[in-house]
Write a structure and sequence with these properties.
Elements (H helix, E strand, L loop, with lengths): L6 H10 L4 H14 L2 H6 L2 H20 L4 H12 L5 E3 L12 H4 L3 E3 L1 H21 L7 H5 L3 H20 L1 H19 L8 H22 L4 E7 L4 E9 L1 H8 L13 H13 L11 H8 L7
Antiparallel strand pairs: 1-2, 3-4
């Protein structure tokens, strides 16, 4: 990966300081220049390097200015629409029962938004997984000792995920697997979740509940239940669930096993989200400013 002080990274950082149409055009031009057709045919290294730099900057900018996450997501989405379509072996644009593209074809045509969406999904998955997946035997004292900084970081990461899913239809396919994983571990795998899962659930329900409902009502069912942390496996791998199942399971969180381990501000945020999605009918999802000011208002208080 390129150094954080490389000219390209410096340019990307500067463009994120003023995310608008002009800077979006510049970002797209930079991407197209870096992954020009000839170099792209030879290797995907340039593509991966610059996209990783962009998604990292999205996360860094969001951590610093969480109320304007919508602006950053829209900025990246706008730029992605102008990326020249390239053939690439990396992607998830395939039927559910097909093997990975790299196993069935050396190249596959995808769009700019898909390329960016997949890179974003990979980045978010890497950062969110630790905060929503048990890695050790559930421990009461460990769960109670988690800092507000831990919960704040989770709130920002999952706000990015929620708002990217809500704001860009092109990102939804790549991001769905990350959301599905959070829902499985947070709602359908027992009552000893990783504490950060509750913040992730609140961010998804408030920040993208309407869009998740529409996505699932359009024919997409969730698949998998009963995830076991010590084997990292879904023991009910074929189990299907729908939006109504998400709403029903969500209203019973946290379960008895976790209720006393969570700080009051986390439970208050969870209750806020539960009231908002009660019944499963959601008029609109909350933007990042509202999430920062109403759902995660505690995050700026030490």
């Amino acid at each position: 990966m390129a150094s954080s002080t490389s000219p390209v990274n410096q340019t990307i950082s500067a463009l994120f300081e003023n995310p608008n149409g002009d800077s979006g055009n510049e970002l797209a031009a930079l991407i197209n220049q870096e992954i020009g057709m000839e170099s792209f045919k030879r290797s995907t290294a340039s593509q991966l390097t610059i996209l990783s730099s962009i998604t990292q900057q999205l996360v860094d900018s969001s951590l610093a200015h969480r109320e304007t996450i919508d602006d950053f997501v829209t900025f990246v989405s706008f730029a992605s629409l102008q990326i020249n379509s390239k053939p690439t072996p990396i992607g998830s644009i395939r039927k559910d029962d097909e093997p990975p593209l790299s196993k069935i074809a050396p190249f596959h045509p995808v769009s700019g938004p898909t390329i960016v969406g997949e890179n974003l999904a990979e980045k978010i998955s890497d950062t969110v997984r630790d905060a929503t997946s048990r890695a050790v035997t559930p421990d009461d004292s460990r769960d109670r000792s988690l800092s507000k900084r831990y919960y704040r970081t989770v709130s920002v990461q999952t706000t990015i995920l929620a708002r990217a899913f809500a704001l860009s239809e092109s990102f939804r396919g790549p991001l769905w697997s990350v959301i599905e994983d959070i829902l499985i571990k947070g709602l359908f795998s027992g009552d000893h979740q990783e504490p950060g899962a509750f913040i992730a659930l609140a961010a998804l329900m408030l920040g993208a509940g309407k869009e998740i409902k529409e996505y699932m009502d359009g024919g997409r069912k969730g698949q998998g239940k009963a995830w076991l942390w010590y084997n990292d496996v879904r023991t009910e791998a074929e189990a299907k669930w729908e939006w109504k199942d998400v709403v029903e399971a969500f209203k019973h969180q946290p379960g008895q096993g976790m209720n006393d381990r969570l700080p009051d501000y986390v439970k208050n945020t969870l209750e806020l989200a539960q009231r908002y999605v009660e019944g499963g009918l959601i008029e609109e999802s909350w933007d990042s400013e509202r999430l920062a000011e109403e759902a995660f208002d505690w995050a700026n208080v030490d």
